[in-house]
UniProtKB/TrEMBL annotation:
It comes from Corynebacterium epidermidicanis. One of its GO terms (molecular function) is ATP hydrolysis activity. It comes from the Bacteria. It is an enzyme of class 3 (hydrolase). This is ABC-type cobalt transport system, ATPase component. GO terms for cellular component: plasma membrane.
């Protein structure tokens, strides 16, 4: 059958082309769009499409368990599908697609938000499945050296980022806190509190005009920690999913230099950069960036790094960063100054 990669810059029409492939099971770049919110556990979520097709119960369970094992989420099968990390959610929705055993599978930016282990596992699975299934992978750059590449618009492989010059920064600490966070169901007069996941206490010390990089595997609690930090008056949060932060009916209301369009009409790059300008423009010294490179091609990554670097030019400002993209983190360290790595496991 084979695997085909389709690449291009943001705004070139990658997602539209992906959605236009006929007779395919399509997994978009935003995994939450595929969660039904109708099932209590991950394995029930995996089985949802099979239920609609009237697949035999024993066959359904076998397919779901096999797909979960392939994506290394067997340990999550009894978890609430709405309370997973971003990377875990992406693996769940891809597993649900694999359980359908389609003849043609289309994946839009499938590796985004995955840690190294999950990326390697998904790569291995796709290499194996392409022998019996037609697979299309859409992204800004090729993920596989051995499979053919088609280009929409200009070829992004020729883009070269600038050489960053690390600025001299003042010593000191911009922000310090000990944080404990949890995911679960809050208590109320009719319901007992349920804690599904807890992280911390974690000591966060942001260097003056510098960055703390929170890193760790999918499900370690990085986003949960950022959401808890966001309760501090000094902090502003850029959420992992851009569509969680559409606060206004026009992009210009979010950032003065943005187009006078509805945010949904922006390209993935322009939407993310508009949100980043909005967060950096709040006047809060500490910006919390949850995978800020989502949806960004090469030029978009450069512009995002420049925006973050400008925020760090002001004494007393700083950044808490969550990303699995080591190259993006390395470029930020060069452009912005001191970076402290904090591993969550």
């Amino acid at each position: 059958m084979g695997l085909t990669q389709v690449i291009g810059y943001s705004g070139a029409g990658l997602s539209a082309a992906a959605r236009g492939i006929p007779d395919a099971v399509y997994v978009s770049a935003t995994p939450l769009h595929h969660v039904t919110y109708l099932r209590a556990t991950v394995i029930e979520e995996l089985a949802f499409g099979l239920e609609q097709r009237g697949v035999d119960r024993a066959e359904m369970q076998s397919r779901c368990e096999s797909a979960a094992a392939a994506l290394d989420i067997s340990n999550l099968l009894e978890r609430d599908p709405t309370r997973l990390s971003g990377g875990q959610t992406r693996r769940m929705v891809i597993a649900a697609a694999l359980a359908l055993q389609p003849q043609r599978l289309v994946l839009d930016d499938p590796f985004f938000g995955l840690d190294k282990h999950a990326t390697a596992e998904l790569s291995r699975v796709l290499r194996s499945l392409q022998e019996t299934m037609e697979i299309w992978v859409f992204s800004h750059l090729p993920a596989f050296a051995e499979f053919p590449v088609e280009v929409i618009g200009d070829d992004p492989r020729g883009f070269q980022p600038p050489r960053w010059v690390t600025p001299q920064r003042r010593q000191g600490t911009a922000f310090q806190a000990a944080v404990t966070a949890f995911r679960g169901v809050p208590g109320s007069w009719w319901r007992k509190e349920r804690v599904d996941f807890k992280v911390g206490p974690v000591e966060i010390s942001v260097p003056n005009q510098g960055i703390v990089w929170l890193c760790g595997p999918n499900g370690a609690g990085k986003s949960t920690l950022l959401h808890e930090l966001a309760k501090q008056p000094a902090c502003g949060l850029l959420t992992q999913d851009p569509y969680d932060q559409l606060l206004f009916s026009t992009a210009r209301a979010m950032a003065s230099d943005a187009p006078d369009q509805h945010p949904y009409d922006l390209s993935a790059r322009n939407l993310r950069l508009t949100q980043l300008r909005m967060i950096c423009g709040l006047g809060r010294p500490i910006v919390l960036l949850d995978e800020p490179e989502v949806g960004l091609d090469g030029p978009g990554r450069v512009e995002a790094i420049e925006l973050i670097a400008r925020h760090c030019e002001t004494p007393g400002n700083g950044v808490v960063l969550v990303t699995h993209d080591e190259d993006f983190a390395a470029q930020l360290a060069l452009a912005c100054g001191p970076m402290v790595t904090r591993l969550l496991d």
